[in-house]
Design a protein that fits this description.
mainly alpha; 7 helices; 0% strand; globular
């Protein structure tokens, strides 16, 4: 009986994944990435630095030393995260109309991936990020990069 449930679930997931077209995958990838960035930006902009630090530790696996300067830097970065997240959400809701926004997203995720690879060791020593968390983060950035690049919708449908 349990085997039949697993078989049914995997069959459903298989049908969902392989019946999706490129535009659906694009919408999901940009929507998830956009929501992630908007939520983290909201935390950075609206909450005190102590709570923001805890949220970033949970989401990113980093430990930030709390200083008065970090609070201002966090708010500054939060504005850019909010703008990027909103841009990704616009892409998710109307990929053809806002297709031009995909290029900055691809570039940003590509640069973030290169940055992660180049500074892999520094993330561990400076921000106390574990190697496994760093690898997971790098793979997620790669998936966002490839997910947007490989499913980029045509200029017109």
């Amino acid at each position: 009986m349990l085997y039949n449930i697993y078989q049914d679930v995997f069959s459903l997931l298989y049908r969902i994944v392989f019946n999706m077209n490129k535009i659906s995958i694009f919408k999901i990838v940009t929507g998830v990435a956009g929501l992630y960035h908007v939520l983290l930006a909201g935390v950075a902009l609206l909450f005190p630095i102590a709570l923001t630090s805890k949220a970033f530790t949970f989401a990113l696996g980093i430990n930030i030393a709390l200083t008065p300067q970090i609070e201002f830097i966090g708010k500054f970065v939060g504005v850019y995260m909010l703008a990027f997240g909103l841009m990704l959400l616009m892409l998710a809701f109307n990929p053809v109309k806002y297709r031009v926004f995909a290029y900055p997203a691809i570039i940003l995720f590509g640069i973030r991936l290169i940055n992660r690879i180049l500074f892999f060791g520094a993330l561990s020593t400076t921000l106390e990020m574990t190697a496994s968390r760093n690898i997971i983060g790098s793979v997620l950035i790669l998936l966002f990069f490839l997910g947007i690049w490989l499913t980029l919708p045509p200029k017109q449908l």
